[in-house]
Amino acid sequence: MGQPLKKKHGDYRYSDYLNWPEDERWELIDGNAYMSAAPSRRHQEIQVELLRQISNYLMGKDCKVYGSPFDVRFARKDDLDNDIKDVVQPDITVVCDRSKLDDKGCKGSPDLIIEIVSPSTASIDYIKKLSLYEKNMVKEYWIVHPTDEIVMIYKLNARNNYERAEIYSKDDEVRVGILSDLIIKMDEVFKQD
Question: Is the dihedral of CA 158, 141, 152, 87 positive or negative?
Answer without folding.
Answer: negative
